[in-house]
Predict the structure.
Amino acid sequence: MTSPLAGRRIVMTAGPTLEAIDPVRFISNRSSGKQGYALASACAELGAEVVLVSGPTALNDPAGVETVRIESARDMLAAVETALPADVFIAVAAVADWRPAEAHDRKIKGNKGEMGSLALVENPDILKTISQRKDERPGLVIGFAAETHEVEDHARQKLARKGCDWIVANDVSGDVMGGDENAIAIVSSDDVWRSQRASKPEIAGLIAQRIAQAVVETC
Ligand code: CTP
């Protein structure tokens, strides 16, 4: 096995975030973390030093990867910033766009009508924040996009909106969320690369190889 990413540091996010409503309730989503964990493993196998900042998942920490477990989007951003500087940042996490405006420190009683409505506030955009850093911006910043239609057009818009260098676009019109297979397109400002449909570990290996090529050229 060659190690084209030896000496390179990669910081990444994966899994869902969990946003507390009270000590027993939360807002989250169905991200399994599988694609992110597979990509962390694939980058480590190519020799990278990988820090994986992960929301709650049922998966074991990947071998050879420093895994930092957090729950909320704000904690995820703080852990990413602590882990910088890095050559590459990869945002795979399905970050909750919103969190409850207030996290109650006591359980809200269900039978007393305390929960009239749930006020939400926007979470930080971790990918955009890292893309727009003035200092310690990683040389290659990669986001993921889950789309059901017009996948590459939406990816291109997301590339511009987030200020990142690549968007890895997933077509989630089938059973990708929580499933074992995936097909992707890697969209950059001047190029699109399309994969076959393959297992998540195979896709992760392909993405890691393209990262290795790009890092040699740009970082
Ligand atoms: N992301 C992030 N922080 C957020 C939201 C998203 O880092 N608060 C990252 C994700 O990890 C992913 C990319 O941004 O890399 C996804 O962008 P987003 O705008 O959330 O797109 P979708 O989830 O695909 O949703 P939509 O197209 O509806 O905006």
Notes: The helical segments are 34-45, 73-83, 126-131, 151-162, 200-218. The longest strand covers residues 140-147. The mean pLDDT is 93. The chain has one domain: 9-105+114-218.
